[in-house]
């Protein structure tokens, strides 16, 4: 807590309680808003017309949605940082509260125009029923070929085959949840915890199938965590003047994170207006390139961001240790620019991919929540990785690469090379996971890339989008 004389005093008692309650409320609010807002917006564009038209509109929506997200991040990392630095944290938090209030008013003002889906219950209950039923019938012989019940319709476990479901031949042990045991006389029908519908099995299979894709995005978010921590620390010991050698405007190190978002504000319209039409003609895919291809491009490019960061840090460290002066903070721009390109492909592709995995509103929100869970896992892995690297490189009484808390003594450049290597390895793992995910796919390339699942209410032949 900042006192009137400018010194920092530790908050205690009631003040500390208020502070931590506020932090937990921010986390709770973000957890509720982020996945549901994106999904709710996509619901307004799906199902209202021809499949091809809706697919194009949905892809455009995700691009525009991320454009708005980047605009908000840019304002937060520039104007908000400036206000907090100049006028204090209380003013900064007040402006943030006012912006949230304005957003709430804007949301409520259009409530009569929104397309609303009725609640369909928890997504965890039917998935749990599938695993319980499959376990209780683990000794049953799973049907094969055309009698595979997991390829059937929604409401009847013994419904006809649906060859369009890509994961029909994966996780075959779950198909046993659809096996109907011949009832004995005077016995009640099997409960939903022992006999599941084919649609419930498809949902469970889809959840298991997307988990490797989610896992492959964790390293990407670990790189993001490093750019938001070590890169800011680098900027604090570099020449932050906009024009080195003069007394011009100084760039706040925390505002360096705004560089990729500023770039994305230009890249998103360029991607939507120029690249998508060209790729649509070349590939015949409605969205230009499929979501999985888009994710793959982003995961490949992120390794270049870490390579650029390692080269810049080596140059900065050599100049500082040899007495050559401080490098300009603008040397950090390339790594942020490259990461901005990676983020355009990876994050927007992930949002579109996860949305297309489910048909029920609750399923869509759940998969979108996985997208944001990947951020959490990435930041957690970042802390674990720093600790592991320090332990592995601490030898002969010397601290590890990042153990001195002094970038001139630490070897942050080598740590960046480790992240670049992990990113390359992660990219090849993703290629294997994406290939496995697409195995068994056929027909339209868009449908093959998205892997839509048919819900119980959508088994009338209508597609998800």
UniProtKB/TrEMBL annotation:
It is found in: Membrane. SUPFAM superfamilies: MFS general substrate transporter. Residues 442-465 are annotated as: Disordered. Its main location: membrane. GO terms for molecular function: transmembrane transporter activity. One of its GO terms (cellular component) is membrane. It is a multi-pass membrane protein. The chain crosses the membrane at residues 16-40, 61-83, 95-114, 207-227, 258-279, 291-312, 332-354, 366-389, 414-433. PANTHER family: OLIGOPEPTIDE TRANSPORTER-RELATED. This is Major facilitator superfamily (MFS) profile domain-containing protein. It comes from Setaria italica.
